[in-house]
Each structure stands twice: as C-alpha cells, then as structure tokens.
Amino acid sequence: MADRAEHISDATADAVGKLSEALEYVERARGHLYSFHQLIGHADLVLGEAVDALRADGHTDLADMLDTEIVGRNVIDGRWTFQVVEEFDDTYWTPFREAEKRARDELMDGVRHLHEARMKEQRRTHGHPDHTEKP
What we know:
By secondary structure, this protein is mainly alpha-helical. It has helices at residues 10-56, 60-69, 81-107, 114-123. It has one domain (10-109).
C-alpha cells in the first residue's frame, strides 16, 4: 500500500472518508431525484393518454378539467421536474462535489477511498488468492 499516501494521518483519512461518504449519500439522493423526474414525466404522458381516451368517449368536461388543471402542471411553484433537477445540480450537487474534490486534493494528494484502502489492508487475509491487495 506504499502508493496509498502513507504520510496522511488516519484521522485525516477518516475525516475525508466521512466527507466522501456524505457525498455518496448525496449521489444516491440525486439518483432518486432523477427517478422522481422520470416517474412524473411518464405519469404526465399517461395522464395525457387518459384525457384523450375520456374525451374520445364523450367525457369532455372531465377531460377538459384534467387537461387544464393537471396535464403539464408544475410539481412545485414554477417548476417542472427537469428544473428541480437542474437547480439541485447547480445549487447543491456541483458545489458539494467540488468541495469534496478540493478536500481530497488538498489533504489526500487526490487519493480517493484512502480510508477504505486502509481498511481493506487491515481486514484482508494476506496470502489468500481472494484477498489480494490489487487486481
């Protein structure tokens, strides 16, 4: 593990590891946000099909109400889901990623997952073919 920044203290590696873990949770949240974006978009398209079917079967008042009130509606004030995603990316996700990278660059010589690499070294069975240090 000589190339894994041995001069960096365990405390620093642990702290930056927690920062990286926090970012991993943000990445997962972002994935859920994209799922929300896709689910709402698909729901709006299916809703449009329902409106068309209701209108075709003579239920024009209900179809008109759904078309006017729900189809294409903002999910939050002034925003469709793509705008929520873009604002999240610009306001939170990108600055968080940049801050985490800065911490790695300044404190860890740019090394990623140093805490985990050290944990692997401690937990692996040396000499076992399925516990090698590197691929």
